[in-house]
Every structure is written in structure tokens, then in C-alpha cells.
Amino acid sequence: MNGAKRSKYEEVDLSRIKTFPMSDLDRKVERSAFxxxxxxxxxxxxxxxxxxxxxxAKDLRLFARHVAEAAESGKPVIxxxxxxxxxxxLTPLLIDFVNRGIITALATNGSGAIHDTEIALxxxxxxxxxxxxxxxxxxxxRDTADFINGSVADEAHFDLGYGEALGISLIxxxxxxxxxxxxxxxxxxxxxxxxxxxxxxxxxxxxxSADGEAIGRASMKDFRIFAREVxxxxxxxxxxxxxxxxxxxxxxxxxxxxxxxxDYPAHGFIAANFDMNVHYRPMQNVLIRPxxxxxxxxxxxxxxxxxxxxxxxxxxxxxxxxxxxx
Length: 326
Fold this sequence. Notes:
Elements: H1 44-50, H2 55-72, E1 77-81, H3 83-87, H4 91-99, E2 105-109, H5 110-122, H6 129-135, H7 142-153, H8 162-172, H9 182-188, E3 193-196, H10 212-230, E4 238-242, H11 247-261, E5 270-275, H12 280-288, E6 296-301, H13 304-325
Parallel strand pairs: 1-2, 1-4, 2-3, 4-5, 5-6
Helix pairs in contact: 2-13, 7-8, 8-9, 10-11, 11-12
């Protein structure tokens, strides 16, 4: 074009590019990995098989197999969880796995114990924080505080951990909804459920019934119990962290250090994190650092109330298949 300006910059000559036929090139996705439509009334096994064999769906099925293999071979399956797991209605699934001997140890923060206790005693939990904060009623339920604080401070429970003391107290009080309590189920099935408390972070610490000495003693006892359970982790064992972004990842890192310092195996296990967001501590303290000496790591992002029922259903199906084939 007359008068058109010419660029003063050099450019590559695409005519010299080397190209290749598809047959000579690798691809990460094959058509065989695609999802398949389901007919109405499909089984869990058919649904699982219909999932695309790609990314998180592929990893979820692989992790479910690891859990099934661990349970089948009698290896530890430890589940750490935050209070949100209870609030999203997942307790019956965890209780089922405790009852069936799949989960061998549980660990939670203070809020997990509070929500579990409230469900067991009253059949409801989780308050409107903003509303209660506005008028000073947030966390001020004396029934919850007096029960938990009283249980931990009870002289009869002096040598018990926090979780064990609460499990016993709920059983002895004939809690109306004890069948929905992980604390109760764990105690009844001799599965350690440890409670790891940060003083001042739980609503029951706002009450005059809170005894810092008793809380600290019981929670420290649970740390030692938890560290021993972590020490049982071995090649092929499984550790899950569900919905705890700070407390449980920090507790686990310290417990793992203690276990390895005392020459327990604690290497080569499979670690998985489940949360709605990517957080620093679960990534570093649950997945990356602990598996540097061996093992595998999985990270799943999604709503607990969807992904955990899906996972547990796939695990159950996998265990059924393995039993039938065995």
C-alpha cells in the first residue's frame, strides 16, 4: 500500500516452522478417558465407571483404591477434620467407616468437638455468628459450655484425653442423639478421637466454667495419643485432612516430627487434603513436607457435602468389588 509505514522490528519466519504428524506426537487425553452418559437407575459402580478418567476424577478413584487397600490390609486410615465437616451433615458417613473398622483414628479441633456434642445433646448446632455478635449472644449457650467444660474438668476424667472424656460423658448422660456422635461411636469402637484445642478460639472458652488448666491437660494428653497414632503410619497407610486449614495441619506436622524422632515408621504413607480452597498449611504440612521421604499426595478442591459422600461411596464400592473378587 502506498504510503504504508513499515515496522522497524524483526519477526520470525513462520514458513520455516517444522511440523509433525499426530501419529508422532503424545497427547494427555484419549477418547477412552471421556465420561459416559448414564441411564436412569444406574448403580454407584456404574456412576463411578462413567466418570472421566481425567484429573481430579481419576485421582479420586485412585485415592479410593488406596483407602480400600489400606483397610483390607489392616493398615491405618487416619482422618483429621474441622468443625465444618460436622456442620455439613457428614457425621453418619464417618461413623459408618468407624463402625466398619475402616477409620482407625480421628482427630479434630475444638469446634469439631463442640458441633458433635451439640448434635448429640440437642440435635442441632451452628449459630448465626453475625446476629449473635451484634447483641453479645454469640457462643453464650451455657448448656454446651457447661457440659464440655465440666466433662474435661471432671476429676474422674483426670487421666483421660479430651475426646475420650467427652465420649464417656455423652454416653453416661444418655445423649438423645448419641447415634449421630462421632465422639460416642469412636469411644464405643476403641478408635481414638483426639481433640486439639487452641485456647481462646472456641465459644466455650468465653464461659466462667472454662478451666484452662484442665483443657490444656486433656488436649495435651490427646496430642500424645495422636502422635502415637501418627507413628503407626507406614507404607500404604492413609492420612486424610478434611476441612481444617490451620489447627490440624499444624498438629499433624508436630506429631509427625515426634513420631519420626522416636523412630516410628511414619514414612511412605498416602496423604490427601479435602477443602473448598487451597490453603498454605494443608499443602505444606499435610501433603508436601510429610511425603518428601516417600508416599503419595492428593489434593481435592470442592464442597465437603458433595465430594466426601462421593468419595465414601466409591471406597465402599471398591471394597465390595475387592471382596467379591477375593
